[in-house]
Design brief:
The complex is a heterodimer.
Chain A (H helix, E strand, L loop, with lengths): L13 E5 L8 E3 L3 E7 L2 E5 L10 E6 L2 E7 L5 H10 L6 E6 L9 E13 L9 E8 L8 E5 L5 E5 L3
Antiparallel strand pairs in A: 1-2, 1-7, 3-6, 4-5, 6-9, 7-8, 8-9, 8-10, 10-11
Chain B lengths: L4 H16 L7 E4 L11 H5 L3 E7 L5 E5 L4 E15 L9 H16 L18 E9 L3 H7 L1 E15 L1
Parallel strand pairs in B: 1-2
Antiparallel strand pairs in B: 2-4, 3-4, 4-6, 5-6
Classes of the chains: A mainly beta, B alpha+beta.
Chain lengths: 163, 165
């Protein structure tokens, strides 16, 4: 019988924005985030040959992106940072996006510098306003996107997503 | 033991109303959980000379609690405001002008007074995270006013409050 472990919840996940430097990051929990949808599908390339009747595949590029809904609040430094990045063609937001909290050993995610696009912000008269942002990683002089597994004492272990 | 935010809100609204519409010597504003509606034979009603306002959680579904963001929770409070005033000026039915005064007082001080939103920056100073969603007004109870001269109006107001988790 399989071992029963605890389940993960969305509200228990963490999106952290770096408010320090790239080399010495200060990961700030973005508390006004409502939900995050990570996407990372690989592009498949066919690699079939006469060696096998089985259709064979390879992986080429992984399309990492995140869609997040963020409660609009001009007093919230995080929302301001994402919105400022949206209205810039060059500004990036350095984020650590995890499927748990940063202090939890074993949670996984991605650290990257992201371009940001605000896709929508419905302003219904009776509603609380949430901005929907799409984040896509880019390349900077600091480095490339990395996958992350959190270790002890909130120490991340980074792995290159190599070709 | 934690304090129910809906209870805190009722108390805050009493304080807010007291500042907004200073009660006269015979007026009474208070927080409560229920009000025993007066009738013509009620001794307390016969003694009611001023305006009586009671603010209470709406029973039975007084509040809803849900996670809104990863760092904030949303409370939806449903509050009932009962406003009572006895007609004592003369025999017979109260005149239109008297009703005008009562319904306008409710509209000015309860419906508009408790209308907290960000359209004009009119958020309450006691709670900057409180917004008004809807106010449902029972203008007055006709049966009560005709039988006992008691103007009795109920305003049920729904508020949203964002609270840090």
């Amino acid at each position: 019988m399989a071992e029963v472990t605890s389940f993960k919840t969305g509200v228990g996940c963490g999106l952290y924005r770096n408010t320090g430097t790239y080399g010495s990051p200060t990961w700030t929990f973005q508390s006004e985030v409502q939900s995050v949808t990570p996407n990372s599908p690989w592009d498949w390339v066919e690699a079939s040959s006469r060696a096998s009747a089985v259709k064979l595949w390879g992986k080429s590029l992984v399309d990492v992106s995140y869609q997040l809904t963020y409660r609009a609040d001009d007093l919230d430094a995080g929302w301001e940072a994402f919105m400022a990045a949206h209205w810039s063609r060059t500004t990036v937001v350095d984020c650590l996006i995890l499927n748990g909290l940063i202090a939890t050993e074993g949670v996984r995610g991605v650290r990257a510098e992201f371009y940001c696009s605000m896709d929508s912000e419905p302003q219904d008269i009776g509603g609380s306003i949430f901005s929907t942002f799409t984040l896509k990683p880019t390349v900077t002089t600091n480095g490339l996107p990395k996958s992350v597994i959190m270790g002890t004492s909130s120490t991340p272990a980074f792995s290159a997503i190599s070709v | 033991m934690a304090t129910l935010p809906t209870r805190t809100l009722c108390a805050d609204l009493v304080t807010y109303l007291t500042a907004l519409a200073a009660p006269g010597a015979d007026d009474s504003y208070a927080r409560c959980y229920f009000v025993r509606t007066a009738d013509a034979n009620d001794a307390a009603l016969q003694l009611l000379t001023g305006r009586r306002v009671r603010i209470a959680p709406s029973l039975p579904n007084a509040y809803t609690y849900e996670a809104l963001t990863r760092g904030g929770d949303l409370y939806t409070h449903r509050i009932s405001v009962l406003i009572e005033k006895r007609y004592t000026d003369a025999a017979g039915d109260p005149p239109t002008s008297w009703f005008d005064t009562q319904v306008d007082w409710v509209y000015t001080n309860i419906v508009l007074g408790f209308d907290f939103d960000k359209r004009d920056g009119a958020l309450p100073t006691f709670n900057r995270q409180l917004t008004t969603v809807v106010a449902d007004v029972q203008l007055f109870d006709l049966d009560t006013v005709l039988k006992s001269g008691l103007f009795s109006s109920v305003v049920e107001i729904t508020f949203n409050e964002l609270v840090a988790a």
